[in-house]
């Protein structure tokens, strides 16, 4: 089956079993023979289509209306095949009774359906089956303002990122005005505290590409390239979009928007670092698709890389560290 054939089969699923079978055929197939950008757009689109179909098949409790969003790399259109599924939901219900437990149960059924086909939910719990990611419109708006005003509490920076990366599933959300991304952009414009917290988060040192000396002295030879390069660039790009009040979603688009504050960073260099590292991630993932546990897809020993790949990865790592140093310094002057 071609990539488009898989999408047609998922869209055409009339029962839960048909949907699980259609998704399972994708997951069991070899990874697509395409470049990383094409593969990421295809997988992100597939997740959105599968989520839309699962939401329709399960449906909300009677008397409840809901709208779903994918977020994270799928929401940005950057999810390489095999990426997990992060979701948010906005709901409202008829009558005075609290229906949230019923909504959570139905949302869990949606994710169960996706997981039965091989589309795993986010391992950190960023799914619409959790109370944190499934709220009424009024609750979302109130929480959004609270997270922007005091982002260091209640996982405000994490929730801001999920909302800013969100993309509607299906077409109904657009007709109701439910838009977590817009709500967070508006809150960020009111509260500068969010930008400060996002800058701190974007420059936090979680993992770095080992320097040549560290490898030669035997201290370290492996790295999670997503943690060391991709995630910091994603966070820096999200910060840049917030400062510019941009609606851009894709990381490379965000890196290219014009903002008047972080002007001393080589943003083109970060674009190249992001693209080069994404190519390497996709190369590794294609090789490891069936042989390596999903949790280890992004972990690489530098010794197993070709010399030009090692050089490219180290160059990308240096680009990230340079940008983080500039943000740390410049943010104190703003």
Q: Could you provide a short overview of the structure?
A:
This protein is of the alpha+beta class and about 325 residues long. The protein is about 60% helix and about 10% strand.
Write structural notes for this entry.
- The protein is an alpha+beta fold.
- The chain folds into two domains: 188 residues, Beta Polymerase, domain 2 (2-Layer Sandwich), CATH 3.30.460; 129 residues, Up-down Bundle (Four Helix Bundle (Hemerythrin (Met), subunit A)).
- Helices cover 58% and strands 8% of the residues.
- It is globular and about 60 Å long.
Can you write the helix and strand succession as a string?
Answer: HHHEHEHEHHEHHHHEHHHEH
- N- to C-terminal separation? 54 Å
* CATH class identity of the largest domain: Alpha Beta
Q: Provide the low-confidence segments as ranges.
A: 213-217
**CATH architecture field of the largest domain:** 2-Layer Sandwich
Radius of gyration: 20 Å
Overall average residue pLDDT: 89
User: In total, how many beta strands?
Assistant: 6
Shape: globular
**Beta-strand content estimate:** 5-15%
Q: Give the helix level as a range of percent.
A: 55-70%
Biggest sheet: strand arrangement: 3-2-1-4
**Tally the helices: what do you get?**
15
Q: Can you tell me the CATH topology of the largest domain?
A: Beta Polymerase, domain 2
């Amino acid at each position: 089956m071609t990539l488009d054939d898989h999408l047609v089969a998922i869209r055409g699923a009339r029962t839960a079993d048909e949907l699980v079978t259609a998704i399972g055929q994708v997951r069991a197939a070899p990874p697509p023979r395409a470049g990383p950008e094409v593969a990421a757009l295809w997988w992100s689109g597939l997740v959105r289509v599968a989520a839309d179909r699962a939401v329709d098949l399960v449906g909300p409790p009677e008397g409840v209306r809901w709208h779903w969003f994918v977020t994270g790399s799928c929401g940005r259109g950057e999810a390489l095949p095999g990426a997990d599924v992060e979701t948010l939901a906005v709901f409202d219900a008829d009558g005075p009774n609290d229906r949230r437990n019923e909504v959570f149960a139905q949302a869990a059924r949606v994710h169960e359906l996706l997981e039965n086909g091989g589309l795993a939910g986010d391992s950190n719990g960023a799914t619409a089956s959790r109370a944190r990611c499934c709220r009424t419109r009024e609750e979302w708006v109130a929480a959004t303002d609270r997270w922007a005003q005091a982002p260091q509490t209640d996982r405000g920076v994490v929730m801001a990122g999920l909302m800013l990366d969100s993309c509607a599933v299906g077409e109904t959300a657009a007709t109701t005005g439910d838009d977590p991304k817009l709500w967070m952009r508006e809150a960020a414009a009111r509260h500068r505290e969010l930008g400060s917290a996002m800058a701190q988060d974007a420059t936090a040192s979680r993992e770095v590409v080992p320097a040549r000396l560290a490898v030669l002295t035997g201290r370290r030879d492996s790295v999670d390239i997503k943690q060391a390069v991709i995630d910091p660039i994603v966070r820096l790009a999200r910060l840049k979009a917030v400062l510019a009040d941009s609606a851009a979603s894709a990381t490379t688009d965000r890196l290219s928007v014009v903002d008047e504050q972080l002007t001393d960073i080589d943003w083109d260099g970060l674009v190249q670092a992001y693209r080069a590292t994404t190519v390497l991630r996709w190369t590794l993932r294609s090789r490891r698709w069936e042989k390596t546990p999903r949790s280890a897809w992004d972990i690489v020993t530098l010794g197993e890389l070709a010399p030009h790949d090692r050089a490219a990865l180290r160059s990308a790592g240096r680009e990230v560290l340079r940008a983080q140093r500039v943000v740390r310094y410049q943010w104190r002057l703003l």
